[in-house]
Write a structure and sequence with these properties.
The chain is an all-alpha fold. Helices cover 61% and strands 0% of the residues.
Length: 89
């Protein structure tokens, strides 16, 4: 995919960071346009980590929206991983 992001490791996030992320993600899901900086201000000590997490969520949702637009009616799990059924067994 164009503009791929590289993820090197899975950092441990605090409960507070995950709560802010959940609120932000819910707002995106509900069609709102949440301001990343407003959410980052909720946890001043986590600025860079939290900002990156929220930016990644915006990016991922944009990629899913683009795929849904490009492939209407297609199961995205099947599109992204054609062998998904065999792996489930």
């Amino acid at each position: 995919m164009k503009n791929e992001r590289k993820f090197t490791s899975k950092p441990d996030f605090t409960d507070e960071e995950l709560d802010v992320f959940a609120d932000f993600s819910d707002a995106l899901r509900d069609g709102k346009n949440p301001d990343i900086e407003e959410y980052v201000k909720r946890l001043p000590g986590a600025g860079t980590r939290l900002r990156r997490l929220l930016e990644d969520e915006v990016w991922a949702r944009a990629q899913v929206a683009r795929l849904r637009a490009d492939y209407p009616g297609v199961d995205l799990a099947r599109l992204l991983d054609p062998d998904w059924r065999r792996k489930r067994k």
